[in-house]
Amino acid sequence: MRRRVAPWFVGAILLMLWQGLCAGFDVPSYLVPSPSAIAVQFFKDGPLLWMSLWATLKITLLAFGLATVLGVVIALLFVQSPMIEASFFPYAVLLQVTPVVAIAPLIIIWVKNTTFALVICATLVALFPIISNTTLGLRSVNPGLVNLFRIHGASRWQTLRLLRIPSALPYFFGGLRISSGLALIGAVVAEFVAGTGGTGAGLAYQILQAGFQLNIPRLFAALVLITVTGVVLFATTVAGSKLALRGWHESQL
Hints:
By secondary structure, the protein is mainly α. The chain contains ten helices and no strands.
């Protein structure tokens, strides 16, 4: 209970300190808005911000799902042969170290559908942790258990299904925790680069518009929505990990 209450207590203290400093020093809202000003702006622009959140969340979830499927498939291919992993893993690293800001304009030019282009950009950002963690998990199997499966004549598919995949699940869910946040970051960055507006605009566009209009409370409200969304995605992956691993893996016992 103390571990659950402590973060909320610290957050409440920080919000009160923030509110007190803004009120005590009479800080203008166009510089640093107080929490109360952000809350008022949030309720004022609620429909617009929620619509933009859904646009960004749609890109994030599509990218996260696509990155999960591609990452697992690539990791399963890597584990089939050390030569395959040695040949292609450097290119996975190349995707990770290439800034999405640098390649997003090219993807947006090449792909005519804006939504699909944004999904590709976010997927490239979220893909590597799943490949890396899942591959590591599939490789991190007790050699004695592998030999035991061989002695009993298990096929490669049986070894993969009954030994390697269960052993890789903790690593896989660790990759999901990282990838969920990166998918959101990739979606927001891609929206910044694309600069898409209109009714289907995401939160990045609202942040840009609020900055141009010096509507800093709306900018902070959009940032709060992005932050809360990231926390919810992380908490969802943690809950999925506990649900899948509880009762049999030592990390959840």
